[in-house]
Amino acid sequence: MAIRNILKDDDPTLRKNSREVTRFDARLHQLLDDMKETMEDADGAGLAAPQVGVLRRVAVVATQDGIAELINPEIIETEGEQEGLEGCLSFPGLYGIVKRPAKVTVRALDRHGEEFTLTGEGIVARAFCHEIDHLDGIVFTERAERILTPEELEELIGSRDDEADGSDRT
Fold this sequence. Notes:
With 170 residues, the chain is α+β, with helices and mostly antiparallel strands. It contains 4 helices and 8 strands. It has helices at 26-41, 123-135, 140-143, 150-163, and strands at 46-48, 58-63, 66-79, 82-87, 95-100, 103-109, 115-121, 146-147. The strands form 2 sheets. Strands 1-2-3-6-7 form a 5-stranded antiparallel β-sheet, sandwiched between helices. A 3-stranded antiparallel β-sheet has the order 4-5-8. The longest helix is centred in the N-terminal third of the chain and has 16 residues, at 26-41. The radius of gyration is 16 Å and the shape is globular. Mean pLDDT is 93; it is low at 163-170.
């Protein structure tokens, strides 16, 4: 496994559509393993292949049950709505307010080409949407109602710290 370079906001690769995966081979497995290691190293909730310079429909998302590998994912059902703070490993230090579904069901293939469905709520639902957007060349700043200033972000994080007792931080 290897930690890959995460592309930053000015890289045009981030705004291109990814191609469907058709080969489920050692090269794909290496990409998945590298993406998981890269996401964990960067302390992220998800990572899409375009973020590491690979225009394939591949993403990894941290869930309550571990890291989900999503190949050729598609959202097949959504429920409710959540509005909240969202950031991106490709846009370090930048956060915006983004509306997403509260619950999302995704159909995808695993590393061996077997189909499965997975449902996530809250931050997992947000991460599913965020990473699938990356596969379509859409970055979160295009979805954000507004981008927070550094002062707004500090105020928001500070107010959360004041209210929290330390046991419910994510």
